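Researcher: Quick test of sequence recovery. Tokens follow.
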């Protein structure tokens, strides 16, 4: 008889997934994947078939990413073949659910949209150029996608890398997996990081700290300065403090245990299935409210501050004038669409909030642009900042006559429209 759960169905060697929206889905998947493995061994077969039947509204990183990673690692651990069929779901296909992206750092840095994709990153001598590139790419992409309140991007730039780096340092796994998803309606960012390594408990008990069990190990890992000896021990602590200050959500799962922070309260679970005794895995999933101002410096003052340097923004700084030079041709996908103009406007406003310094918008090498592009980029920025603040913080250079005409016209039309609507 087929074994059924709320989210997954297994029949012999066939596993069907109906939802990937929370940790329960991951647990159901692991249990049913193990049942399929037992069946093929009893019948001297070597192939498991997985069919994904999820609707888009039932796919979130806290389940989609771990399940994708588990499939990849399960094949290696058990030396079996797994065939994946994705039915009527472009989202799963586009996020590379069946084959996570393993790109060189250079290719990651050139990617304009890294959201809603599953990435694998690997270590070379304990460090990963891919992790560094992904961290920067996530923040850059978010900066273009949406206006974020003060402190949010600064906190994310530090926290995302710390969590990704933890995977490589403590898991004794050569690779980790990461996925980020932006929720427009709730203005939240969901990020999940996963590894199929030895787990937090086994990692910590090799060091100076001797946790009693897995729940104790998670609680220790969330304390300041707790490490297995291979790091400073502030990664999960720093993330938890950032999430608390932001009012977000935070889950750490390792082995059979989970610790959940939601709505300002902690809860736990000790019923998670595992891949194997040597592959207890760790998942860190968190959600951040991009609309809530967050003082990351205050949240992490006990660890003596953080390195929140952003190489992309630092390279824009003109030291002589103490002004950031934002070159349109280097940041725009095109000069014709409203969406491209909006992405640049979001990025510029986010940079202003992060640096609190003037910015000069450089139109060199831009010969022509559409009216809608100019409206979204310049006119809407004038409205959002107001004339006084715009003139104090923003200047424009190297704009030819045609662009100047389009810009002036866009600002005039937008301003008139705003006044008429008041």
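Model:
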């Amino acid at each position: 008889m087929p074994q059924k759960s709320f989210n997954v169905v297994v029949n012999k060697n066939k596993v069907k997934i109906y939802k990937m929206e929370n940790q329960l889905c991951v647990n159901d998947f692991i249990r049913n994947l193990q049942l399929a493995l037992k069946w093929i061994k009893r019948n001297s077969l070597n192939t498991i078939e997985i069919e994904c039947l999820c609707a888009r509204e039932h796919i979130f990183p806290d389940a989609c990413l771990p399940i994708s990673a588990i499939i990849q690692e399960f094949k290696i651990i058990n030396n079996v073949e797994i065939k994946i069929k994705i039915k009527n779901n472009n989202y799963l296909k586009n996020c590379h659910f069946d084959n996570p992206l393993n790109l060189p750092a250079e290719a990651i840095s050139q990617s304009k949209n890294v959201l809603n994709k599953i990435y694998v990153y690997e270590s070379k001598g304990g460090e990963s150029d891919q992790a560094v590139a992904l961290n920067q790419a996530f923040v850059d992409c978010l900066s273009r996608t949406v206006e974020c309140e003060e402190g949010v991007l600064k906190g994310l730039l530090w926290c995302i890398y710390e969590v990704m780096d933890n995977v490589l340092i403590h898991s004794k796994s050569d690779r980790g997996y990461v996925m980020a998803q932006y929720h427009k309606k709730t203005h939240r960012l969901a990020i999940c990081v996963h590894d199929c390594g030895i787990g937090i408990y086994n990692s910590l008990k090799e060091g100076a700290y001797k946790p009693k069990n897995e729940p104790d190990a998670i609680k220790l890992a969330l304390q300041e300065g707790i490490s297995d000896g291979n790091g400073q021990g502030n990664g999960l602590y720093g993330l938890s403090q950032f999430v608390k200050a932001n009012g977000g959500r935070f889950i750490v799962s390792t082995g059979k245990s989970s610790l959940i922070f939601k709505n300002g309260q902690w809860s736990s679970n000790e019923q998670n299935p595992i891949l194997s005794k040597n592959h207890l895995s760790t998942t860190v999933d968190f959600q951040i409210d991009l609309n809530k101002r967050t003082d990351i410096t205050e949240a992490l003052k006990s660890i003596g501050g953080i390195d929140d340097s952003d190489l992309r923004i630092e390279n824009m700084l003109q030291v002589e004038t103490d002004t950031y030079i934002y070159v349109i041709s280097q940041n725009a996908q095109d000069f014709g669409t409203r969406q491209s103009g909006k992405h640049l406007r979001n990025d510029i406003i986010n940079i202003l909030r992060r640096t609190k310094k003037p910015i000069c918008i450089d139109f060199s090498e831009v010969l022509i642009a559409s009216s809608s592009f100019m409206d979204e980029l310049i006119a809407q920025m004038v409205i959002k900042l107001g004339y006084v603040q715009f003139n104090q913080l923003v200047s424009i250079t190297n704009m030819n006559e045609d662009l100047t005409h389009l810009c002036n016209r866009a600002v005039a039309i937008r301003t008139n429209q705003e006044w008429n609507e008041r």
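The chain has a mean pLDDT of 92.
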